[in-house]
Write a structure and sequence with these properties.
The structure is a homodimer.
Chain A (H helix, E strand, L loop, with lengths): L3 E8 L2 E8 L2 E5 L1 E3 L12 H7 L4 E4 H6 L3 H6 L3 H5 L5 E4 L2 H6 L4 E4 L2 E5 L6 E4 L1 H11 L3 E3 L11 H21 L6 E6 L5 H14 L3 E4 L8 H11 L9 E3 L5 H9 L4 E3 L2 H7 L2 E2 L6 E2 L26 H9 L3 H28 L18
Parallel strand pairs in A: 4-14, 5-6, 6-10, 10-11, 11-12, 12-13, 13-14
Antiparallel strand pairs in A: 1-2, 2-3, 7-8, 8-9, 15-16
Helix pairs in contact in A: 1-13, 6-7, 7-8, 11-13, 12-13
């Protein structure tokens, strides 16, 4: 079964949609928790289901190094291996081209990494990455791309952009049409014409969905928003659009209004481990002394099991004491908060009131990454 | 309401019992997971309930330093603070007299600690420890004792033993009779006459329950079992008996057969964090390469959410990758294993077949601490 995507309602450019995959249906706009190695740090699959996650992201580069694609394939694929039976998307390793820049060499043929774990060689090619994701049995595979650093000169950006487009053509040619779908990735840094040309060229190749990559790499929020505003409307209307690695609730709300359907970010889980809890009234830095005696839950309007039982004072105590339970509970809460936020966005599109979200408290203060 | 204890059935010296506390009833023999600072590392209260925990242990010394008894009292007591609404028992700090020996000074009046966190002074006295546990609102309070090191010369053991008895008299005098109950603690190292005299003297003081302390401090399993065999039968039959800090399933089974009703130990949780999973077929060192491709759950007969969903291969991958989820999942499993083991012991007493447990697989190989 290939991917199917249906737009059920719109509000301005925002779309309420339904992404149907071999492992189930995802209501969009959707947020993908990040389970790099197959699990969100500290959580079990049931915790993610309770939080309301309908699709999970894992990372091909990391899984290829540990435990290896062959091992996962032998164990029945990534769903069987991780115990997560809902849809899965894997990132291809293009982001690691940036984040592990000192450990890799990029050529037109592909990327060679020195493993960050043991120095062994890992070679990623456009065709190999497609084949590996098919072996994992994921619902959404991503093409190999090169995520350029920010800032980048026009000339360098063009070289990287051409290479990514070439890789996309090779990946598309290698894709057998399913099961699941293959997404192309638009690069082009902050250059509008590169972004828009990439969007058109990828659309002509006919992917199952289209991602906007190369953002959340250091650029300003204004630059990030501009990229989304130029790029999203250039992407095919009948396919899902995915903004990779974004982000803060207010950035997500902005991108949804620009017509984006899918998001992933480490932010809610990483912030949780650093003691930052997202709430409808803005983030709480729970280590702060003002929470020492605060008997209230993190967010009285949150349905998560943490808010139904644990106080800010107890979480303050756990986090300051370095107790694992503090990090786990904060992660459960933050992911629930994000997934509820997506549900509110979906309801707002359905009701035609999305414009009101700009000033909603969920989009309040920025928390540190 | 004070504590009530009822023996419902016996099998040899083993007792099936019911301990009624202000926060609910505990079926005995029972195992108390260790939540030193108010939570089992990595778990939320609901996880403990799902695992079947009916009573949780916390530690007065650690809570007095962080967040402080006053803070907890102001927040409504330890149940309200931790979100754990079932029975709670607090250890008094007597074990820290041993484990933090370099940071404390023991005199007949009490113990002075230099905080292991910031060097501030914490003074524990028999009366103060009773008062603090009343302020916490725990169901079972423990007297202050001195847990002597092992081995210890007879002369030194006697001095420490006398002091602990003196403290027990002062604690008993300070105890207002409830709510909840106060347990005395038998010390006396490996000297049978000291153990038995302490048991009789404490019994004469009329506590709500009696603990055997000063074991699991380095002595051999044979010595530990001897201490239990001398001491348990000397304790009042109509009150609960608690073996502190023990231990391996086979040690628990032995002590149950000697008439002990309550147990606590960090072992299942600490082993879990080190990648050792207890099963009915013996412990699994999950980092071992033989689990890399093993699609089976840790224990096919275990009812825990981990065994219903995650494979040994995935846990192997998570633990070797240092992923938090590995430690959390292993903790959920090991505690469920322990609590199920207690349920099996209770059923065996009820059915009069406890003797068969000696060779049961649950009591198989020893895992490293």
């Amino acid at each position: 079964m290939p991917l199917a995507f249906e737009v059920l309602a719109t509000c301005g450019r925002a779309r309420l949609g339904r992404l149907s995959t071999p492992h189930g249906v995802v209501a969009t706009p959707a947020f993908l928790p990040v389970g790099t190695l197959g699990a969100v740090k500290g959580l079990c699959p049931a915790d993610l289901e309770t939080a309301g996650a309908e699709i999970l992201l894992a990372n091909l580069y990391h899984l290829a190094l540990r435990p290896g694609i062959e091992t996962i394939e032998r164990l029945g694929g990534l769903h069987a291996f991780t115990g997560w039976s809902r849809p899965l998307l894997t990132d291809s390793g293009g982001y690691q081209v940036l984040s592990l820049a000192s450990l890799r060499r990029v050529e037109d043929g592909g990327v060679s990494f020195r493993s960050h774990l043991d120095g062994s060689l890992l070679r990623l090619t456009p065709e190999g990455v497609v084949a590996d994701q098919l072996r994992l049995g994921v619902d959404v595979a991503m093409v190999l791309d090169e995520c350029p650093p920010w800032p980048i000169e026009r000339g360098e950006a063009e070289v990287s952009w051409e290479r990514t487009l070439g890789w996309a053509r090779r990946a598309r040619a290698a894709w057998p049409g399913g099961p699941g779908g293959l997404f192309g990735i638009v690069q082009g840094s902050v250059y509008p014409d590169l972004r828009q040309r990439a969007a058109r060229e990828l659309a002509a190749l006919g992917f199952d969905g289209y991602a906007i990559g190369g953002v959340a790499v250091g650029e300003s929020p204004a630059d990030r928003r501009s990229v989304v505003e130029w790029t999203a409307p250039s992407l095919p209307e009948d396919r899902p659009r995915y903004l990779m690695g974004v982000g803060y609730p207010e950035d997500i709300a902005h991108a949804v209004r620009s017509g984006v359907d899918l998001f992933d970010c480490v932010l809610p889980a990483r912030n949780a481990r650093h003691g930052v809890l997202f709430t409808r009234a803005g983030p709480l830095r729970i280590r702060n002394a003002r929470f020492r005696d605060d008997p209230r839950p993190p967010d009285a309007d949150c349905r998560c099991p943490v808010c139904r039982r644990l106080s800010r004072a107890f979480l303050h105590h756990l986090v300051r004491s370095g107790e694992l339970t503090g990090a786990v509970a904060a992660t459960v809460h933050n992911l629930t908060h994000y997934l509820d936020f997506m549900e509110h966005l979906r309801q707002a599109i359905q009701s035609g009131v999305l414009a009101d979200f700009e000033s909603a408290p969920s989009c309040g203060d920025r928390a540190p990454l």
